[in-house]
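subagent[fold] <- orchestrator: predict structure for attached chain, return tokens only, no commentary.
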Amino acid sequence: MTQWNVKLPGADYSLTTDEMKVWADAGKITGTTVIVDQNGEHWNAKQVPGVFSRRDYVVALVLSIFLGTLGVDRFYMGKIGTGILKLLTIGGLGIWWLIDLVLIATKKLTDKQGYSLA
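subagent[fold] -> orchestrator:
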């Protein structure tokens, strides 16, 4: 297993990729948290595969604000089935749109693979 050195204010932690995903889900690290690999190269946590979603938080938020009633935010996050339902119900008559908007804004909604948005 690959070990990563996670740089947080006041401390460094040696974590595996799976442990970093758990920390990302718990909000202990963000996409901009500095990670150092075994070769000493520095990365942002969102650049490490398997920790954060490939999809961008800001893009998802903007899509949700402007096109959320059409389900475009769900399509973007890979959730095609619920995107179609959201499109056909015009965002659940606005209620589903508002719920998704809040979930994306608070980073509680994950992509299809279950990864947090970075």
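orchestrator: received. Logging for downstream: The chain has a mean pLDDT of 94. The CA atoms of residues 75 and 81 lie 8 Å apart.
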